[in-house]
Amino acid sequence: MVDQSTQSIVIQAPPAEIMAVIADFAAYPEWAEAVKETEVLSTTSSGLAEKVRFVLDAGVVKDTYVNVYEWADDGLSVSWTLSEGQVQKAQQGTYSLRPQPEGGTEVTYSLAVDLAIPMIGMFKRKAEKMIMNTALKELKRRVESGT
């Protein structure tokens, strides 16, 4: 797998509230600008999404892909891998949540993407960082606004 990029942000909410927003894939098009459509294809025995199809339009990168999700029992992390993609050859990601002693929750997003189209490593890492930065800010805005 390719190198992974990682970023963190503190969101003023408890982990369960943040994870509920992360797990609500049907609502992603409402708050994640690049996500145009989602469809949960299968769920775990506990009702969490296991396989999700996304239609993404992030300007330069447009893709329809399917990720497979694994949810931690403690409710503090979720990871995923790409199972099907048109533009992406591979994707691995994780959201890890860590309650902060002074309040709020630190959310760490790690992402590694390998595209079917050739791209210089420096540009790919910059794109990953931009995607993560946007995703974290949009997640923070969604959770803290309560909508």
Pick out its properties.
alpha+beta; 47% strand
Would you mind describing this structure in some detail?
The protein is built from 3 helices and 7 strands; from the N terminus they run βααββββββα. With 147 residues, it is an alpha+beta fold. The protein has a 7-stranded antiparallel beta sheet. The longest helix has 25 residues.
Average of per-residue pLDDT values: 88
Rg calculated over all Cα atoms: 15 Å
Largest sheet: 7 strands, antiparallel
Give helix and strand order, one letter per element, not per position: EHHEEEEEEH
Order of strands, main sheet, comes to 1-7-6-5-4-3-2
Instruction: Flag low-confidence runs.
Output: none
Strand content: over 45%
Helix count, DSSP H or I runs of 4 or more residues:
3
How would the global form be characterised? globular
Which structural class do the helices and strands define?
Answer: alpha+beta
C-alpha end-to-end distance: 36 Å
Give the beta-strand count. Answer: 7
Summarize the amount of helix as a percent range: 25-40%
